[in-house]
Automatic annotation (TrEMBL):
InterPro entries: ArsR-like_HTH, HTH_ArsR_DNA-bd_dom, HTH_MetalResp_TranReg, WH-like_DNA-bd_sf, WH_DNA-bd_sf. Keywords: DNA-binding, Transcription, Transcription regulation. GO terms for molecular function: DNA binding; DNA-binding transcription factor activity. This is ArsR family transcriptional regulator. Residues 1-90 form the HTH arsR-type domain. It comes from the Bacteria. SMART domains: HTH_ARSR (SM00418). PANTHER family: TRANSCRIPTIONAL REGULATOR, ARSR FAMILY, TRANSCRIPTIONAL REPRESSOR SDPR. Pfam families: HTH_20. NCBIfam families: HTH_metalloreg (NF033788). It comes from Actinoplanes utahensis.
Length: 119
């Protein structure tokens, strides 16, 4: 499965977001995902399996629980692929930053001392 097929699913992205802060037990992941997406425990398990089999997550037993952790290598590969597209959004982000600064300057130049006291 291609990295973007894995990352294209909102449930799997949410699971990875939960794992960013560190290892999480499968039960805790399932609880959050079921509450947010309204899916069954077997469906959550299926998403965890896809993440594990695609290398985005690893799991290890801890007594009666399974702990999941995010794996960085596939994310780095996706990041490298996206780097080729950076010029497309950097130019637009630079233009946005320019417009925001221009608007800020315009607001400052049209507001008087009384306006600043009221904000």
């Amino acid at each position: 499965m291609h990295a973007f097929d894995v990352l294209g699913d909102p449930v799997r992205r949410r699971i990875l977001e939960l794992l960013v802060s560190g290892e999480q037990p499968a039960g805790a992941i399932s609880e959050v995902v079921r509450a947010e997406f309204g899916i069954s425990p077997p469906a959550v398990s299926q998403h965890l399996r896809v993440l594990r089999e695609s290398g985005f997550a690893s799991s290890r037993p801890d007594g009666t629980r399974r702990l999941y952790a995010v794996e960085a290598a596939p994310l780095r590969e996706a990041h490298r692929w996206l780097e080729g597209f950076r010029p497309f959004w950097e130019q637009r982000l630079d233009a946005l930053a320019t417009e925001l600064a221009r608007g800020k300057r315009a607001r400052r130049s049209t507001s008087g001392p009384d306006d600043e006291e009221n904000t």
